Amino acid sequence: MRNVRVTRSARKHGIAAEDISRVLTAPLRTVVQGGERGTVELHIGLTPERDLLEVVVAPGNPVIVLHAMRLSPSNYRYLTG
After folding, report:
1. Are the CB atoms for 74 and 57 separated by under 8 Å?
2. Burial of 79 (0-12, 13-18, 19+ CB in 10 A)
3. pLDDT tens-place string over residues 36-63
């Protein structure tokens, strides 16, 4: 596993660090997104309970986890295509 730092804001939705790590280790889908603040990666994956999660990271060393929560409906589109 890569060197990962989870920010306080990434924890605000109550996603466990183990579930974040699981998504980053074996994502179902990864989408690279660019914006004013630079490039981030959206990783979509499953928990052991089969809940879909979205994890947004700033790539680098360490990888910085910016956001983690259950998959929002607006991101379902990345699973079909």
Report:
1. no
2. exposed
3. 778 999 999 999 999 999 999 999 899 9
